[in-house]
Prior knowledge:
Blueprint: E1 12-20, E2 30-36, H1 46-49, E3 50-52, E4 58-66, H2 71-92, H3 99-123, E5 131-132, E6 134-140, E7 143-149, E8 153-158, E9 161-164, H4 171-177, H5 183-188, E10 194-195, E11 208-213, E12 219-223, H6 225-228, H7 233-242, H8 246-259, E13 266-274, H9 310-316, E14 346-347, H10 350-355, H11 368-393
Amino acid sequence: MTGSPTPNGKVIVHVFGRTDVGRTREHNEDTFAVADLTTFNATLQPEVRTHTCGERGSLFMVADGMGGAAAGEVASQMAVETMLAELDARWRQSQSTDSETFAHALKAATETANARIHAYAAAHPENRGMGTTATIAGLLGDTLYLCQVGDSRGYIVRDGQAIQITKDQSLMQKLIEAGEMTPEEAEVSERRNIILQALGPEAKIKVDLTSQQVKRGDTLILCSDGLSGLVRAHEIAEVVKGDADLVSVCKKLIDLANEGGGPDNITVVAARFEGEGLPDAGAETLAHRVYRGSQERPTVPLDRSSIPQLSAIDEAEEAEAPTVDVETLPPPKVVVGSAGKGPTAEIAPPAVRAKLPEPPPPGGRIPASTLRMYFGGLALLVAFVAVFMWWRRG
C-alpha cells in the first residue's frame, strides 16, 4: 500500500450521499459528509461529486446519532463538524503530505470529536448519554484509511461482491468472534442493537484504524445500521453492479431498507474510484485490516486541556459498576426519539464490556494463563504430597 499521491496517473472519485428518515422516525439523527480535502469543499456540488483526488485526499463519513429527542442529531452533526475542522488544522494546514500523517490525523480528529461531544453532554444534563457512531474513510493516493467507532459499516464492492471492511464494535460481534453465536443468530438477536462504543458517552474511546488498498472500479459503500440491519451484503452488491449512477444506487439501497420496514434512519455514501493511478483488481482478498503504519508511531496525543470542561469531567467520572455475566444480561432497554418511535442502539455498560469473552487463541493453542494455572496447581499438589509423606514417617 503506497498511500501517497500516485505519480503515474490520476485517481478519479465519483461520489454521492443520501439520508432518509425511514418509515418510523419523526426526525433524522443521521449525518454524512463528503469532502475534497485538497480544495476543502464539503458539499455535493458537481465539482465534488466527480473530482480528482489531490495531494490532501478525500473524505467520506457516516454518523448515526442516538440519545433521544434531538440529542442524537446534535451528536452526529458535531462529529462531522469536528472531523472537518480538525482535519483542516491537523492535516490540510500541515507541511506533511505523507500517509502516516494523514492516517493519524484521522484518528486524532475522531478522538477529539468524542471529547467534544462528551464535554457538551456534561454541560447540558438534558443531553447526558448522547452519542453517535462514526465510520470515517479517508482516501489518499490508492489507499483508504478508515476510523471505526460503533456499528455503522463500510463495504467495498469489487468483482460483483460486497465485502465488509469494517468491524462492528457491538456485543454481537464479540460473541461471534468468541464462537458463542453465529452471524445468522446475531442478525435476529434481541440484543443486536447493543454497541460497545460510540462517540460521546465516555471520555475516552479506542478507535479502530484500518487501511485498504483500492483498485480501479472499486465502489465504497458507507452506511448506518438503518441500511445494514435490513439489506444484506449480496443485495448491496447487486444494486451497485447493476447501476453505474451513484445517485440511483443510493436511492435504490434506501428504498430496499424502507421496503423492509424502515424502522430506523437510513444513510448511504457511495464512492466509485477510477483512473490510471489505481491498479487493476487482482487476486487480493478484501478483509478488515488493522493499520500499522511504516514507523509504528503512536497517535498524536490529544490536548485535553483544549476541550472545555474535559478536565473536570475526568475527575468526576463515576466508578465502574461490578462485573456481570454476559449470559445474565437483560434485554436492552429501548432508547426512543422525540416521537417515541423506533429503537436505536444502546451502549453496553462498562461492566458488560469488561466481562465479554475473548476470541479463542489462533491455531488452537492453550493460553499462557491457563498453562500457568495448571502447572501452579500441579506444583502445589506435589508439595502437599511431600509434606504428608514426611509427616507419616515422623
